[in-house]
Amino acid sequence: MRTASLLLTATALMTAVPAQAGPDAAKDKDEDIRYLLGASLSAAPEYDGASRLKFKVRPLWAVRFGRIRIATSGGSALLGFGRENVGAGASTQLVESAKWRVGVSLRFDSGRNSGDARTTQGLPDVKRTLRAKFSATYTLTPDWNISGSLSQDMLGRGGGLTAGLDLGWRFYRSESTEWTSGIGLSAANAQNMRSYFGVPASAAAASGKPAYEPGAGLRDVHIGVGVKHALDQHWFVFGSAGASQLQGPAADSPLVEKRGGYGASVGVAWRN
């Protein structure tokens, strides 16, 4: 009941709050429904700090109707919603101008099943929850932007609060191809750190790890590059690669096997 109530309240707020828009916003709102379907193959650490890679094949989709966008991770940007730091889930823009984009979003966070990785076995699971995110992007130049975000666990299931700050650069663009890159950092409060990097004293024996109770602080610094290439009017391929380095209380966790990690993904999609 609590989850349903939050979703209904958020949907009402998304549709009720008028966006402050620039001269092109009315044109964008009048566009037909847009959607995307695709699939991606990715390789990434089992969890932040793990030494083993995990490969995933997953579907990718996104849809926009009016000011509301609903998408899987990465789907929103691929559909061409703009260089917005919104991400997966249901989202809307509160402010759209030549320089600023400010938005809110809701998404389900799958948490962590501690039995999925050998090094986290015996630890408490991090429960699935609903996260609300506030994000803002400022356009420095047509090819440079800076963005920040805050994301909060709305159900109090251990997800806590996370924050991010990123600088993005589109360094090549043609009629069919676009290359982008970015660098940034993330931080988290004590609740998030304890859930993902902590070892409760009650689980120390079962996990074989020393007890560890981290506080708030930096989580990581990261860098990445991405490419999109249109094959024709509807089909396109895409790829990305990135690296990160754990920082602060996260890096000191006994769960961390490698402070540095990397990942990559490739995929294909169709959009109307």
Automatic annotation (TrEMBL):
<keyword id="KW-0472">Membrane</keyword>
<feature type="signal peptide">
    <location>
        <begin position="1"/>
        <end position="21"/>
    </location>
</feature>
<dbReference type="InterPro" id="IPR010583">
    <property type="entry name" value="MipA"/>
</dbReference>
<keyword id="KW-0732">Signal</keyword>
<comment type="similarity">
    <text>Belongs to the MipA/OmpV family.</text>
</comment>
<keyword id="KW-0998">Cell outer membrane</keyword>
<dbReference type="Pfam" id="PF06629">
    <property type="entry name" value="MipA"/>
</dbReference>
<protein>
    <submittedName>
        <fullName>MipA/OmpV family protein</fullName>
    </submittedName>
</protein>
